[in-house]
Amino acid sequence: MADVTVHRDVVFHRPPDRESPLELDVYEPANGGADRPAVVVYHGGAWIEGEKGQLEALERALAEQGYVCFDANYRLSGEATFPTPVEDAAAAVRYAKANADEYGVDSDRIATTGHSAGAHLAALIAAADGGFDSTDAPVSSTVAAAAPISGVYDLRDREQATANDVERQFLGGGPDEVPERYERASPAAHVDDATPPTLLLHGDDDDLLPADGAREYARTLAAADRPVELGILPGGGHGIVVDPEDWRERGVETVADFLDRRL
């Protein structure tokens, strides 16, 4: 097993309206190297809780296989509503690109991944193609691939009476109040000919976010003639690659295999 070097609490973004900066952890192969592929990782927690470190097992496994992983925090919905958390997620990609030489990364071979709410961010950053960058950003948050896990990919067409309270808090209102946010926050609304290759990993026993959402997003990507792979894990619940169950190892292997072929 290869050694992994972890750099904790690295400042990657200093929002002007926030007292403290945002931090990430960097996992990299201990033997160093140059022009390595990288993955920017986002934790889950319904956009309202959680922090970096949630997907450490995945990040260590990827680092052992030669990937540099940037595990980023982002502002949660109790502090800031959409699009701020997504802009933070985009800033993490820009940090990886801007510091590619320092970490031995090939800036053209960077992907996103994440679990649950983090999967939504990973998919949205990939599909939006730099659409959440500031106009004066020195580099773009465009990525070469995405591998979201147990995510939600289309927030449109929500009915006011049945809109999820978690989504309301994240988006700053209901679908009748801020419909444009439900549209812009949906990865499916951004799919075009620039959307990078995408792996959608999901458990078929996910009772929080059913796998049908991943299947529908896969159809959207395929209809746009974008490379897409749908990985449905039999018996997997919502916590694949998080909970220490039999299918976590399979989930990690699926993500690693996809990235090996796409980066």
Q: Could you characterize what this model shows?
A:
The chain is of the alpha/beta class and 263 residues long. The chain has a single domain (4-156, 184-262), classed as Rossmann fold. Helices cover 31% and strands 22% of the residues. It has an 8-stranded mixed beta sheet, sandwiched between helices. The mean pLDDT is 94.
Low-confidence stretches: none
Average pLDDT confidence is 94
State the share of residues found in helices, binned by percent. Answer: 25-40%
The spatial strand order of the largest sheet comes to: 1-2-4-3-5-6-7-8
CATH fold call: Rossmann fold
**CATH homologous superfamily - what is it?**
Alpha/Beta hydrolase fold, catalytic domain
Total domains: 1
Q: Total strand count, please?
A: 8
Strand content: 15-25%
Largest sheet: 8 strands, mixed
User: What is the CATH class designation?
Assistant: Alpha Beta
Order of helices and strands: EEEHEHHEHEHHEHEH
Domain BD-FAE-like: 24-217
Keywords: Hydrolase
GO molecular function, one term: hydrolase activity
Protein name: Esterase
